[in-house]
Write a structure and sequence with these properties.
By secondary structure, this protein is mainly alpha-helical. Helix content is 47%, strand content 7%. Strand 1, helix 6 and strand 2 (180-184) form a beta-alpha-beta unit.
Length: 217
């Protein structure tokens, strides 16, 4: 594996964990530690953290332990003079970033409760185009499609296409395959969801084009 790739990924893990640690400390300054936290209308705590560590995050105070766990996963920085196998440390840095990103999203629900629209469809007129974490109702309703084969899988799109026309072409190809298309993150100041809306494509759970959020988290 490229030393440069490993260096960038591990450094990225450090940056992400540090950023979320700062957001957590800021949240503690404005909210009581017993403040409830999590994704709305769900019973699965913070699912990535819970499924991989068994840690239940229900209050702001509970974030401390998984955040410390994420910090502990971060490996030493790649050094220029000593060759080491990079895959293990790289995966640890990736998991640390995933845990931190999930905490960041939970903090967003606390700090910006109206940022995401709690619906299966967007409200373009109101400027609400991000649906955030899928709740239990969506999981029950959509999960059946993955079991019975009517939805053979999903594609994930991160960032944006070169232009709205290409974004539409890519997504329509996935739709012809009956795939769900999960969209997140931005690139060069735009997102694939904004490009699709510009191209006249209807987005939302019912069209299987799911606008999770504008950030990589």
């Amino acid at each position: 594996m490229s030393r440069l790739v490993a260096f960038a990924a591990i450094q990225g893990g450090y940056n992400i964990v540090s950023k979320v640690e700062g957001k957590y400390q800021k949240a503690l300054q404005t909210h009581d530690a017993s403040t409830k936290i999590g994704f709305p209308n769900t019973a699965y705590f913070l699912p990535v953290i819970y499924s991989l560590t068994g840690l239940k995050v229900e209050t702001l105070e509970d974030i401390q332990e998984p955040l410390e766990f994420a910090r502990g996963l971060l490996p030493p920085h790649v050094k220029g003079q000593h060759h080491l196998p990079y895959l293990g440390p790289l995966l640890d840095a990736g998991m640390a970033a995933l845990f931190a990103f999930e905490i960041e999203e939970a903090l967003r629900y606390l700090e910006e409760p109206d940022f995401y629209l709690h619906s299966e469809e967007i409200d373009e007129d109101a400027g609400k185009i991000w649906l955030g974490a899928a709740d239990d109702t969506v999981f029950r309703k959509r999960g059946v499609e993955f079991v019975d084969g009517s939805a053979p899988g999903f594609a994930a799109i991160v960032g944006a296409a070169p232009n709205p026309e290409i974004a539409k072409m890519i997504v329509e190809e996935y739709q012809r395959r009956s795939l769900y298309i999960f969209c997140a993150a931005n690139q060069n100041g735009t997102t694939v969801i904004e490009q699709l809306i510009e191209a006249g494509v209807q987005v939302g759970w019912n069209t299987r084009i799911v606008p999770f959020g504008p950030d990589i988290s």
